[in-house]
Amino acid sequence: DTGVSQNPRHKITKRGQNVTFRCDPISEHNRLYWYRQTLGQGPEFLTYFQNEAQLEKSRLLSDRFSAERPKGSFSTLEIQRTEQGDSAMYLCASSGEATGEETQYFGPGTRLLVL
Amino acid sequence: RKEVEQDPGPFNVPEGATVAFNCTYSNSASQSFFWYRQDCRKEPKLLMSVYSSGNEDGRFTAQLNRASQYISLLIRDSKLSDSATYLCVVNPPGGGGNKLTFGTGTQLKVEL
Question: B3 exposed, middle or buried (CB, 10 Å; 0-12, 13-18, 19+)?
Fold first, then answer.
């Protein structure tokens, strides 16, 4: 499967714990995006990377959230001191502007439940 | 006002019906427009891009009216497999093609 992959697919944690999610984009794509989706809403943009550079962050991304893409390939999204309001689906997408492909392709998401 | 507004539905239609979804966006300088489809508990998938001249892909037709800041999606001869949530998506100015803004989605249920 050469699509976007995300791990884990599901995560249950207790309030106050730290969690980390991983996204592996389509291999030739240089842009990677993180979105968050809550029930009954559309996805909301969190941040995006071009290669290893984080070029934009939403105001939704509080200080407890940090994202990295150290080698310009996979990315991690870490949430520190989780709160119940962090419960959501975290979606990763990638696109390949360098190859002329601007469509964002989404991964299956990581569903987070904070108890 | 929300950046992208859609009627959440649900739209319950019989198989074979024609159904239309509408969407409005607030920023007149928005550059790109899309319809994505999302099945229950799955990721969004691009259905089609929307161009000023309108575009058609099989049973699906998308229209853009920049003057009214209005986007539409028409589904003809609907199938059971069309049941899903349809997300109206806009790329706002300054996004550089990067930051997609999604509506809340319109839920479609096609019934026998």
Answer: middle
Segment holding A93, helix H or strand E: strand A88-96
Q: What is the CA radius of gyration of chain A?
A: 13
Question: What pLDDT is stored for residue A97 in this prediction?
Answer: 67
- Mutate one of A29, A45, A47 to test the B interface: name it (highest B CB count within 10 A): A45
Region A1-27 average pLDDT: 94
Helix or strand holding residue A57 (H, E): strand A53-57
CA–CA distance, A54 with A95 (Å, rounded to integer): 15
- Position B94 scores a pLDDT of 65
Cα-to-chain-centroid distance, residue B61: 10
Query: Cβ–Cβ of B8/A40 closer than 8 Å?
Result: yes
- Rounded Cα distance, A25 and A11, in Å: 20
- What is the C-alpha end-to-end distance of chain B, expressed in Å? 37
Res B96 pLDDT > 60: no
Give me the amino acid identity at B94.
G
The strand ranges marked E within chain B are: 4-6, 11-14, 19-25, 32-38, 44-50, 55-57, 60-65, 70-75, 84-91, 101-102, 106-111
Q: Is the pLDDT confidence value at A100 over 70? A: no
- pLDDT over 70, % of chain B: 96
| Nearest Cβ partner for B97 among A43, A102, A107 | A102
Q: Is the separation of the CB atoms in A40 and B104 below 8 Å?
A: yes
Closest of B10, B37, B35 to residue B23, by C-alpha: B35
